[in-house]
Design brief:
- Helix content is about 50%, strand content about 10%.
- It is an alpha+beta fold and about 280 residues long.
- The strands form two sheets. It has a four-stranded mixed sheet with strand order 4-3-5-6. It has a two-stranded antiparallel ribbon with strand order 1-2.
- The C terminus is likely disordered.
């Protein structure tokens, strides 16, 4: 129990830190910058924050009122537009939207801290523990923060909080294959990532023949489908590892279109269409 409590406390602290970093990026923006388009087709900076506010809201329902959570799913006019409609529903003028997001994420953190050990929360196509839900919220907040940063022309420095995204990306290896209609591999894969502090984050058997190595931020960009693998310094050894880099996703639901290679990359010698990609869905357990 103590170990679970300590882990959840650390996760919620990192979720607060990740949200605070994005909050500090958008809070001073003039109203016009909230209307800037982001790499997610059709979504502005405001849509990105509204999506996070909406997802925090439905996560709060999952943690406190599962019946209301299920009702929010079954009453959706068009389930294929659930994410887009949620963002549209939570759109508001910047000051109001910021206040809504801040209040919602604080309420969610309080609710997750109170979830009994061993309890599973309903989610889209799965059920998750409070620790998995907190990890999912870190992943989504960081990924959508990258979309906002791209829209603003800002490069954010990677932090130790990325270890949660990397861990989730590794845990969902089989899910990525399944989401693309492929059989989950049986061969183990070793993941070794260069952490922001100069250390190494490693997952999987040390003697695995299939291996993925590279910067932690690049791996996190890949599994959240914020960059095409051609634009990342990730190396794969072995057929399973190589295929994984094509199908990796740390979020639930269908894989989506992903992102096109950036103009000038090795896989894209000329101009490309603006990158698309997943707008957002919670991570799998």
């Amino acid at each position: 129990m103590a170990d679970r409590t300590d882990l959840l406390t650390d996760l919620l602290a990192d979720l607060t830190g990740e949200s605070g970093e994005l909050d500090a990026l958008v809070a001073p923006l003039p109203a016009g910058d909230w209307r800037r388009p982001t790499p997610a087709a059709g979504w502005t900076v405001a849509h990105q924050i509204a999506h996070l506010a909406w997802t925090d809201h439905v996560a709060l329902l999952a943690a406190t009122d599962p019946g209301a959570f299920f009702a929010s799913v079954t009453s959706a006019p068009d389930p294929t537009r659930l994410v887009d409609d949620g963002a549209e529903q939570f759109l508001a003028p910047p000051a109001e939207l910021l206040a809504r997001w801040r209040a919602g994420r604080a309420a969610l953190a309080e609710a997750l801290a109170a979830v009994p050990a061993g309890a599973k929360l309903p989610w889209y196509g799965t059920r998750m523990s409070a620790t998995s839900m907190a990890t999912a919220r870190i992943m989504e907040t960081w990924a959508h923060g990258e979309d906002v940063a791209d829209a603003l022309g800002v490069t954010r420095a990677p932090t130790a909080r990325l270890r949660h995204v990397a861990h989730l990306g590794f845990r969902t290896l089989g899910h990525g294959f399944a989401a693309h209609g492929r059989a989950a591999p049986t061969a183990p894969v070793r993941l070794e990532l260069a952490a922001p502090d100069g250390g190494t984050w490693a997952h999987g058997p040390a003697d695995a023949a299939d291996r993925v190595t590279g910067p932690a931020r690049d791996f996190c960009l890949l599994v959240t489908q914020r960059r095409h693998r051609a634009d990342l310094a990730l190396m794969a050894v072995g057929p399973v590892a190589d295929e994984w880099l094509d199908v990796a996703q740390a979020f639930a639901g269908p894989p989506g279109a992903g992102r096109e290679p950036l103009a000038g990359s090795a896989a894209s010698p000329g101009p490309t269409t603006p990158p698309g990609g997943p707008r957002g869905a919670g991570a799998t357990a």
